[in-house]
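Input record (one chain):
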Amino acid sequence: MKNILLATALCSVSGAALACSPDYSGVTLTVSTQNGPFIASALQTAADSWEQKTCGTINLVEFPFSELYPKFLTAMTQGAGDFDVIGYIPAWLPDFAPYLSEMPAGMQSGEAWKDIHPVYRERLMMWDGAIKSATMDGDMHMLNYRADLFEDADNKAAFEALYGYPLAAPVTWDQYYDIAAFFTRPDAGLYGTAEAYRRGGQQFWYFFSHAASYTNNPNNPGSMFFDPETMQAQINNPGWLKALQDYKRGLDYNPPGALNNGSGDVRPLYAGGKVAMNIDWADSGVLGANPDESTIVGNVRTAMLPGSTRIWNHVTGDWDMFDAPVASPFLAFGGWQLAVPASSNNTAAAWNFVAEVTSPEVSGKAIITANTGVNPYRLSHYENTDNWSSIFSPAEAASYLSAQRASLDAPNVALDLRLPGFFSYTEVLEIELSRALAGEVEPQQALDTIAAEWNKLTDEFGRETQLAAYRASMGLPTR
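The corresponding structure, as predicted from the sequence alone:
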């Protein structure tokens, strides 16, 4: 009621500065996403500015992440018009696309459009040749580490004496585990790394980040998850097995209770100085630089995920060996997106709100605000260093931005799985992955079970339909 009265009052005031432009007075948009503060707080901030400009009203509705997919899909298939804007993840776009309106042509041109990094603009926002969503958050997994530990003279000398090479950000997973072991010092309250292992805590994206290095073969594009010729699941091949063995090995260097940690738990472990490294989205960097929540201010450093000198080739049934480590940074999650259901009664106003949220000005503030969950996705986000000086030191900003840009620009960048029925595939995955991490089944057995279930799901959804969708999501030509 308060928002409605405020909007009415603003629109009644004369003068161009307070005019409703465009005029959406009397329009209430229902906008929904996950429980805050991540993403929801950014939408609320944008709602405040949009309401002042347009005299419209935003009703922000939040749900637990696990409830978003069924609530959104049910509402859209019923055509109920319950939501005007939904905040969701790219993996669900194949299932949601038939029920979404297309982005207005006017938003698909101009400087703001060109400013979106091509990976997001040309790959993750599009389905079946149409732009059905707008990126509001750029996501990929990266390695975060502490400069105070890595640049300490005693640590550098001791590490090189022990392992025979200099202490620096790891470029292979073997180096990552050497460093994690070196810094695991329980008596001092310090551990080597932190990753998410909890079912429902976005664990499978962490597993995928390991797997990309061993399965995203540049000689066979699109073969990480499925054979792009037959749609046969690849998740039980030797590359995936190596990844699961590595991922499970990391438990030895995580703080106690790591099996209960989700992605939101690894950030304060890093910012609080409990670990030397972590793997996370870019949120850890912003949190680590926040003096109100961090003990490592000034020491935040970021690097691309480690790579590998060997990658499994499913065609030859053997490992391909490379002279230097191949970086296969994984665009885990792919970033939150906004879309407007076709059943909305206010599509023009809804897309106008989306444009406000994703504008260079509004998004430029969101990316430097702690706990918004919004990470860079525009070229200007990486280039406007003045923005970042408000939270980062020059050294922190340089590593943070260069790691993200290098990940997006990497020749062997690995895109996340996007497939109709994504929820069903990942539900099976999480069940068996959790069992393997807990030691209830051997890694190969867990992967074999997942592969069998994935093949069964593919047949149930329609193998040819799934194959076409998978090839499209991987950027491969239609057969």
